[in-house]
Amino acid sequence: MSTPDAAATPTSPSRTRAVPESTAGAPRRWGSLGPVGLVLAGGVSVQFGGALAVSLMPRAGALGVVALRLLVAAVVLLLVCRPRLRGHSRTDWGTVIVFGITMAAMNGLFYQSVARIPLGPAVTLEVLGPLALSVLTSRRLINVVWAGLALAGVFLLGGGGFESLDPVGVAFALGAGAMWAAYIVFSARTGRRFPQADGLALAMAVGAVLFLPLGIAESGTKLIDPVTLGLGAAVAILSSVLPYTLELLALRRMPAPTFAILMSLEPAVAATAGFLILDQALSAAQSVAIALVIAASMGAVRTQVGRGKAKP
Q: Do the Cβ atoms of 258 and 303 come closer than 8 Å?
């Protein structure tokens, strides 16, 4: 788990530590979805939560929204999971701390991005991180093909170019994408080192502690407004608690390259959420782009299913 090889090939039985049956999967109500269903459910949740967060920014600011999201998510996960603090190695704690820092950075950079550019292009740029991860870590040529198809859809969804966007917002989105790739790696590592969602709860607490001072500095007493708190709690549940838990559980049963390609669905879901919540209409080109990323994701799923059937 703590070795680079484990991160590169998370499902290889010779390079990963077996997870006890009692903690390896989600509760039955989630486990019945399968790893692909878990990823898709998490993607829908996080993008609709992101659209809600955009509407909350005028009240609390970008940093304030992130602080509320991380804080509420940490409290909920700590109360539900009640993670054990003793009995973990230094490597375990190092992994969960880096995971928490990664989540805080990913959220902070992304919300700084959507404060400057529209939700769809921001997610389109952000997803380049997971796509790059899938190409760099995959040992199968077919995954490169799916990543390339998804990449074509990502750029088409961005209107064929991003030169009209705020360059600072673009930089923040690309930075968030790099942190998203790191999140995939450390989510898989944390999921194998801690039972159920305990590691996620501890990592979320680390992220909340790191980000809360920034949120207070930007928003001050606005963070304790009842309406702001309520909306922030909804964003936390939709954008953090549900998706991160589902993705962590999925990564226990799915190769990181396949997971990364499935993340290419995020721009399509974001465009849908933007249309339904923020009145951001879809153009014909964007519709074609959605078809491309869905085709790439379906190809990744078929590859994963075929690989599973081929195993003895």
A: yes
